[in-house]
Amino acid sequence: MSSPPTPRQILETLLPPLRLAAGYARHIQDNIVAQPAKAGPNPFSTALTDADLSVQTFVEVALLGSFPNLRFYGEEFEQSYNTKYFRAIDLGPAGDYLVTLDPIDGTRFYMDGFPNYQIILTVLNAAGFEAVLAVSPAEDQYFYALRGQGTRVGQLAQALDDCEPLQRSPNQAVLLGTRMAPLKDKLSDRYTVISVSEDYSTDQPIPNVNGILKGHLGGVILAAGKFIDGAALAFLAQEAGCIVTDHQGQPLPRLDECIDYAWPGLAIAASPDIHRDLLTALEGFQIPSV
């Protein structure tokens, strides 16, 4: 039996189809058709479009054609025709990788015509993240990281080897994810604070979590970090030199100790000072129930 592919081989193989998927998503954005909303706690988690379903199907086909024995978990796995053809959708031990996909991260942003959506692919095992690749179709750009090797950025046409190490320029803005709005008053004396639930508008763009990579944000607080999106971006930020912990400032657990494919609440900061301020704001805070 042949050896399983390495995380780098998985990224190299899937980058070309991800480029095509990015072109597709970019092309149809102005005419996008929404699908009936999914079940979920807020409009950002329930949004669904033709692009979500089509991009996932395209990547599934590429993955089954290239590495049919890998595990795969896509955000739209319940609606996919291909889920039954993968060996498993859960985490495996070291070397038995789970590939995950968020076909359109920021679907609400995408539906409203904003450019800061992305396609996120990860390679995981039970212990943690091994690799993440996040494509920004509208900006012709992608970020990727392999564990312990830093985060790199390049234009979509560039090969992995041609990408440059990400140079961070921290901003004094903080993004609060859904359910984190009550923290706004505790941080607004020092930072420009953007609350997704309070400040999102169809007319005025706000940063997404990927703003921590693009220099638009200095900090992010999330109620939880799904492996397919928030946690994946946190991994990219950490590999780029940011500080990433739980809400108590503790290291994050192994992935196989988590529930529902998600890390517990995340505090992501571009500097120790910002991280300290985030943790101070979080002291005694209880995340509101959904």
Automatic annotation (TrEMBL):
Record's keyword annotation contains Metal-binding: yes
CDD domains: IMPase_like (cd01637)
Gene3D superfamilies assigned: 3.40.190.80, Fructose-1,6-Bisphosphatase, subunit A, domain 1
Binding annotation for Mg(2+): 75, 102, 104-105, 229
Cofactors demanded by this protein: Mg(2+)
Keywords noted in UniProt: Magnesium, Metal-binding
Keyword Ribonucleoprotein recorded: no
GO BP field: inositol metabolic process; signal transduction
Entry-linked InterPro entries: Inositol_monophosphatase-like (IPR000760)
Gene Ontology MF, one: metal ion binding
Pfam families named among the record's database cross-references: Inositol_P
This protein's name: Inositol monophosphatase family protein
Provenance organism: Leptolyngbya iicbica LK
